[in-house]
Amino acid sequence: MLRKRSSNRRRLLAILLILLLLSLVGLLAWAGSPSGQLMPQAQQALSSDERVVVKRERWILFEPRSGTSSTGFIFYPGGRVQAEAYAPLGKAIANRGYRAVLVPMPFNLAILAPDAADDVMASFPQISRWVIGGHSLGGVMAARYAHSHPDRIDGLVLVASYPEAGVDLSRSRLPVATIYAELDGLSELRQIEDSFPFLPPDAIKVMIAGGNHAGFGWYGPQSGDKPAAISRQDQQVQLSGAILAFLQEAG
Questions:
Q1: What is the pTM of this model?
Q2: What are phi and psi of 108, to 5 degrees?
Q3: Which of 58, 81, 125, 187 has its CA 20 to 30 A from that of 109?
Q4: Do residues 152 and 130 lie in contact, with contact meaning Cβ atoms separated by under 8 Å?
Q5: Distance CA 185, CA 225 (A)
Q6: pLDDT in tens, 128-148
Q7: Whose CA is closest to 43, among 31, 54, 27, 30?
Q8: How many angstroms from the chain centroid is the CA of residue 56?
Q9: How far is CA 235 from CA 37, 108, 229, 241, in A?
Q10: 150-171 pLDDT, tens per residue?
C-alpha cells in the first residue's frame, strides 16, 4: 500500500512538473512574440542620415553627428514591444543634439532587465547627465531604476506609465515628466491620475488629447487599446516635443 502511494505521488509530481514546464514555454513564447509589427516609419528611422548616426549593437544608439549634448536619454520599450518601434522618437531626440539609447529587452519584457541602464551608462563616460524613460511596462521599470539609483539619474520620463507599488517619488528632488494619452485603453487616465501623489509635487504632466496607448510607438494597433482621435504622427510630434523640452530643462 505504501509503495502504491509513493508511486502515485511520483506520478502526480511528474505531471505537475510537465504542466509547469509547458506553462513556462507558453509564457516565453507569448512574451517573445512582439505585440504588432514594425511600421515603415520605424524601419526608415533605423538608418543613418546626414544629421544622425544610428548604430545597432547591444542597444540601438542614435548619435548626433555634431554638437552632442552632455545629457543622454535612455528609453525602455513597452511590454512585448520591440525597441525598434521607438526609432522615430530616438531619431527626433538625436536630431536636437542628445544621444538617445533604445534598450532591447529579453523576451521584450523590461521587467527581466530593469538595470540595463547600468551597462548603457558605463559605455558612455563622456555623458555627465542621464535621463531615463520608458513606455508602459518600460516606464514602470525606468521608475524603479530611478528610485533605486537616485545618484545616477538626473530625470525620469514616464510615457503612458506610472510607478509600481513601493516606488514613491513624492519626496524626491528628481525631475519627472509624465506624458499620457486621453484615449489610452491600457494605461487609462484614471490609473495615470491616481499615480500623481507618488510623483514629486513639481512633476510635469502632459496629456495628449485624442492620443492612445499604441500611438506612443510605431508598432501598429494594440489589443485592448481605444481608437485614437488624432494621427500617430501628431501624437509622436507632441511626445518628442514634450521630452525635448524636459531634456533641455534637465541639462
A1: 0.88
A2: 60, 35
A3: 125
A4: yes
A5: 4
A6: 999 999 999 999 999 999 999
A7: 54
A8: 18
A9: 19, 23, 10, 10
A10: 999 999 999 999 999 999 999 9
